[in-house]
Amino acid sequence: MKRSKRYSENKKKVEVKKYALNEAIQKAKETANAHYDESIDLSIKLNIDPKKTDQLIRGFSNLPHGTGKTKRVLVLTKGEKEKEARDAGADHTGFDEYIEKIKGGWSDVDVIIATPDVMSDISKLGRLLGPKGLMPSPKAGTVTFEIASQVKALKKGKVEFKTDKTGCVHIPVGRASFEAQRLRDNILVLMEDVMAAKPQTIKGNLIKSVTISSTMGPGIAIDEKALLNDTKKGGI
Predict the structure, then answer these.
(1) Given a cut of 50, is residue 129 above it in pLDDT?
(2) Which CATH architecture has domain 73-156?
(3) Which of 130, 117, 94, 111 is nearest to 60 (CA)?
């Protein structure tokens, strides 16, 4: 793959070694020198077989400082729950109007929440919402009557993590403009939540490796043992 001159120069700043968390964060910020506020992302390689469904990991993390991006939330519901959604900060709320808009191809939101009583109608939109990752799901916490708490959590910085087909978790943990301590706080909370989601079928270490990077920057390996010892739970 042909890399840009800027990327190649940034790559020279990163040694082939595992960095302590604080140093890795500083390197990620240093190499985030594009002409916009780059996302800082964490990639976690898990010691699982992604072909076995009982080893897959999925969960949520309430990042204390958010990701730097406010999610656009649509709540599909009827009656009093519409007001609850609006009061909680939802960007869009309603039902019939948005069902028709979705059928017409509209999907200008990041998350869709729905109350259980309307799911029979929403399930018919699976072929439209599923490929975009917008289909409400009880497992994802987006099918619920607890509308206000879900909307507020998503707006504050609640993120979902799940393993991909390679057995990795990729998740944004902030922006290059964040203070290093805020990135550190987010990363430690995320790691605790990933560890808490460890399936019982996994024996031994869950974490193989951890890498941090900016959107346009090179990957920076983190010492995973030291990282996990820094969490409240400690160890791997």
Answers:
(1) yes
(2) 3-Layer(aba) Sandwich (3.40)
(3) 111
